[in-house]
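Suppose you are handed a protein chain with no further information: no name, no annotation, nothing but its sequence. What can you learn? This example shows the usual starting point.
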Amino acid sequence: MSRDEYTREFEKFLIKCDIHVPEEQPTIRYLGGLDPRYANIIKLQQYTMFGEVCILAHKVEEQKKAKPYKRDFPRP
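A reasonable first move is to predict its three-dimensional structure. Written in structure tokens, the prediction is:
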């Protein structure tokens, strides 16, 4: 499942269940189900709300999709 699909399904679940929990609980659950390649990077960032985590996940995914920076090292 892509990050977009996962985020949409997670948000639908939150709305459908209408569970009233502290703000950090959905964020922790979201990160727990997110691809570890993205979650590990997001956990290093500063965020306070669930929406911020979704935006960070999108940015991380876009960076991962971009071609990696290639350095040309001089050969000895």
